[in-house]
Amino acid sequence: EPEVTQTPSHQVTQMGQEVILRCVPISNHLYFYWYRQILGQKVEFLVSFYNNEISEKSEIFDDQFSVERPDGSNFTLKIRSTKLEDSAMYFCASSGTSGRTYNEQFFGPGTRLTVL
Amino acid sequence: AQTVTQSQPEMSVQEAETVTLSCTYDTSESNYYLFWYKQPPSRQMILVIRQEAYKQQNATENRFSVNFQKAAKSFSLKISDSQLGDTAMYFCAYLYSNDYKLSFGAGTTVTVRA
């Protein structure tokens, strides 16, 4: 069964450094998303992406964040200058445009980001 | 903004028994989707079940079923014949049909006891 994959599974970085989290969505999906989950808290929406542009973003997704689809398969989240409070689990998700899975978001296994 | 409320932080159930998790949501929309996601200790988010708001029939997936009460804005999840592998955090989530972002509740930790 197709699945969303994410790399790395765990990233440790120093405060102020840039990080890039990578995702490979399900191949025929056209909508892509990033969510984050601070330990012990609820999952929060960051951004959605369709047709090579951001379709919606939350107030968390400020100028420090950016997303990109650099090629036909990868979808990345960049944090320009990490802060301690960026430490969280980051989930990528994708969804299709028709059929039974329409509006159903499939999540990757997550990347645990630790900012020291 | 839509709010999703899960009022039970933790639930414990004996293996083979049934447990019901509650979820309420706040919306002024009529077309939307509701989901239950399972997050085991690995922290992977796994879709358990979905419900379209326009459907009156409650969704069922094997041992998982929902009780969708649209007027009351309630969407509970019933896990029947609980298994040890059901131990996880369960999140209720809402998606407006013209929107992109899932709004999640705070989660309910379910522990299945042997």
Radius of gyration of chain B: 14 Å
Helix percent of chain A reads under 10%
Share of β-strand residues of chain A? over 45%
Distance between the termini of chain A: 37 Å
Count of helix runs of chain B: 0
Largest interface: A-B, 25 and 23 residues
Shape descriptor of chain A reads globular
**Alpha carbon gap, first and last residue of chain B:** 40 Å
The helix-strand sequence of chain A is EEEEEEEEEEE
Descriptive notes:
Chain A has strands at 5-7, 10-13, 19-24, 31-37, 43-50, 53-57, 65-68, 75-79, 88-95, 106-107, 111-115. Chain A has 116 residues and is an all-beta fold. In chain A, a hairpin with a 6-residue loop joins strand 7 and strand 8. The mean pLDDT of chain A is 92. Chain B is built from no helices and 12 strands. In chain B, strands 2, 5, 6, 10, 11 and 12 form a 6-stranded mixed sheet that branches. Chain B has a 4-stranded antiparallel sheet with strand order 3-9-8-7, with no helix packed on it. In chain B, strands 1-4 form a two-stranded antiparallel sheet. In chain B, strand 5 and strand 6 form a beta hairpin. The chains are: A mainly beta (116), B mainly beta (114).
